[in-house]
Design a protein that fits this description.
- Helix 11 packs antiparallel against helix 14 and helix 13 packs antiparallel against helix 14.
- The strands form 3 sheets. This protein has a 7-stranded mixed β-sheet, with helices on both faces.
- Strand 6 and strand 7 form a beta hairpin.
- The longest helix has 22 residues.
- The chain has 2 domains: 246 residues, Aspartate Aminotransferase, domain 2, CATH 3.40.640; 131 residues, Aspartate Aminotransferase, domain 1 (Alpha-Beta Complex), CATH 3.90.1150.
- It is globular and about 60 Å long.
- The chain contains 14 helices and 14 strands.
- The protein is α/β, with parallel strands linked by helices.
- The chain is 42% helix and 16% strand.
- The structure holds pyridoxal-5'-phosphate.
- The site of pyridoxal-5'-phosphate has 13 residues, from helix 3 and helix 4.
Length: 409
């Protein structure tokens, strides 16, 4: 088959995600003087507006020229001291990644093991903290949505667990795959530090890591002794842009952020969460049908724990998930994510987060189905049809449309 590629390829990886044209266009401009009010005012507004996205009024926002790994490190470098103990409930591949950063900073790690197929158990956090009579544990590192496994943790339940034993540990939450896709209420949920990155729900190009720290976290920072320079909050708490970025501001990324935040508030957080719910429901309806043939299954065993931003699909023995992914991308112009960590080669992931609509997700599902048909992977027919009906039903419900629909003259 002639492989000249026409049309737009679908990007259905769980990060990076689609960058809207409006955001790309906002970057397409000349650089400006660092003190130009056009830049300064835009950045000031974006720092303030990031608080709204995290749903916090009391936290400080720090923006770094980095990715999610850098945001992890930024958060830890500002609150750790030598010999601190850190509690890490295993959520999947990404709790392991954050754990390793803490370990590199000399923290003693206490991990709560989990099987990657279920959400972490808040009761085990309470148990571990209750046993820590001398309060050696300084922080709990929690990944809200672990993108490798497609599972979202119950953050308020973890807060309750910490409070139930009166433990002073900081609650630090990775919202890299959840912010801008599902509800995240930093203040209400008692999260002390939240970290995120630009390339997923925030609809920006990769390149910015963002940390929100509440007053308790900033207080811990004042006494923490971990070595840091670029990450240090002290300089960044000053108002001048050059200090806020520990050097030259990433002007074009900040113009992108301004546009992305405008788009987020135009749609409204509630509507964004509803849209992600609808698209995720459609993907799940489709996968449930495909899975009836026995070759595919949901990684997340409990339906209520399945992420609204990414679905991780296990492939049966003998099915090459990496080939499926390559074929979908190279032959059908649809990129989906691969299995990570111990799921490498054994799973693929459909991202459904960010700048995405009904037609795009149906296109992705159709391309994955075409890939399976092409490769001879067994799947039950009717998956995409189930997704179509799921989306139509969601719209009917939202509009309170009677069934069958009648057009009123
Ligand atoms: C939940 C989560 N945390 C951390 C990361 C790491 O982010 P990055 O790849 O930008 O360093 C990712 C990346 O996919 C992620 O999904």
């Amino acid at each position: 088959m002639n492989q000249v590629k026409r049309g737009r390829a679908f990007l259905s990886t769980p990060g990076p995600t689609n960058v809207p044209d409006r955001v790309l266009n906002a970057m397409h401009r000349a650089a400006v003087d660092l003190n130009d009010p056009v830049l300064v005012d835009s950045m000031t507004a974006s720092f303030a507006d990031m608080k709204k996205v995290f749903q916090t009024t009391q936290s400080e926002i720090f923006i770094y020229i980095t990715n999610g790994h850098g945001a992890w490190e930024a958060a830890l470098a500002n609150v750790l001291s030598a010999g601190d103990r850190i509690l890490v409930p295993e959520t999947g591949n990404f709790s392991g990644g954050w754990r390793d950063v803490a370990a590199a900073y000399g923290a003693t790690i206490q991990e709560i093991p989990n099987d990657w197929r279920r959400a972490m158990d808040p009761a085990k956090v309470a148990e571990a903290l209750a046993a820590d009579k001398n309060h050696e544990i300084k922080a709990v590192l929690l990944v809200h949505t672990d993108t490798a496994v497609g599972i979202t943790a119950d953050v308020p339940a973890v807060r309750k667990a910490i409070d139930s034993v009166g433990h002073p540990a900081l609650l630090m939450v990775d919202t890299i795959a959840s912010l801008g896709t599902v509800d995240f209420r930093m203040d209400e949920w008692g999260v002390d530090i939240a970290v995120t990155a630009s390339q997923k729900g925030l609809m920006m190009p990769p390149g910015l890591g963002i940390v929100a720290a509440n007053p308790k976290a900033v207080e811990v920072h004042r006494h923490s002794t971990a070595p840091r320079r670029y990450w240090d909050w002290d300089a960044r708490l000053q108002s001048e842009g050059y200090r806020k970025f520990c050097g030259t501001a990433p002007e074009h990324h900040m113009f992108a952020m301004r546009e992305a935040l405008d788009m987020i508030f135009e749609e409204g957080l509630e509507n964004i969460f509803r849209r992600h719910q609808m698209l995720a429901d459609a993907v799940r309806a489709c996968v449930a049908v495909w899975a009836e043939a026995g070759a595919l299954s949901f990684n997340a065993i409990n339906p209520a724990e399945r992420s609204n931003g990414v679905t991780t699909i296990l492939t049966a023995e003998g099915i090459d998930a990496a080939l499926l992914r390559e074929t979908a991308r190279d032959r059908f112009q649809t990129a989906v994510g691969g299995g990570l960590g111990k799921l490498q080669g054994k799973a693929f992931r459909i991202g459904h987060m960010g700048d995405l609509n009904e037609g795009m997700i149906l296109g992705t599902l159709s391309a994955v189905e075409a890939t399976m048909a092409y490769l001879g992977i067994p799947y039950q027919r009717g998956g995409v049809d189930a997704a179509i009906r799921s989306i139509a039903e969601a719209h009917r419900k939202a509009d309170a449309v009677p069934t069958p629909m009648t057009r009123v003259a």
